[in-house]
Amino acid sequence: MGPIAWSMNKYMKKWNIWRSAQRRKSPEQLTQEGMNHPFQPEYESNGDFTRWAQQFLAPEEVEQLHLKYGRRMFIPIDQ
Questions:
Q1: Range of the domain at 74
Q2: Would you place residue 79 in the very low, low, confident or very high pLDDT band (cuts 50, 70, 90)?
Q3: Are residues 47 and 24 in the same domain?
C-alpha cells in the first residue's frame, strides 16, 4: 500500500469511528452539541442573505426567517 493510500485509509477509519459515534446519539444530544459548539452562525439581514436563501425557500419563507431571527430591513434583492 502506497503512502497516499495508507493516509486515506487512516483518515477513513477515523471518520467511520466518528460517524458510528454520531449515529448512536439521540437527536436531542446532537442538537445540544450543535448549540454548545463555539462557532455559532450570526444572523444578518442583507441582500446577499436574501438572494442566497431564495435559492432554497419561497420569498414568503425568507420573510418569515427575517421576522423570526432579526430586524427586517427593506433590502431590495434586485441590486
A1: 41-79
A2: very low
A3: no
